[in-house]
């Protein structure tokens, strides 16, 4: 018996916390709750998708091809020793109609 007292037990205390037996919420999953939550989440996602599609239909895009206008920059970059030289390229364009840009009616107001 003296040997048992000399070496204390390495077992944890017999408490609910140390034995990992704390009470926890355990959901009661039935067919009705699973299906209803599935359809509710599906309806919310469908509504969000419809809103996104309707908002993207009003987006207007323009494409500007500037590959021929910046050929001098591409020639400059062919030589790797020119990595630190600055090269500016600009391509002019005209908008055919007013567009809403950053909450403003006139794109010239952005600058």
Automatic annotation (TrEMBL):
Compartments reported by the entry: Membrane
A GO biological process of this protein is:
phospholipid translocation
Listed A to Z, the keywords are:
Glycoprotein, Membrane, Transmembrane, Transmembrane helix
**Name used for this protein in its record:** Cell cycle control protein 50C
The transmembrane residues are 31-54
Tell me a GO cellular component. Answer: plasma membrane
Q: Which family does it belong to?
A: Belongs to the CDC50/LEM3 family.
Q: Which residues form a coiled coil?
A: none
According to its UniProt entry, this protein's organism is Nothoprocta perdicaria (Chilean tinamou)
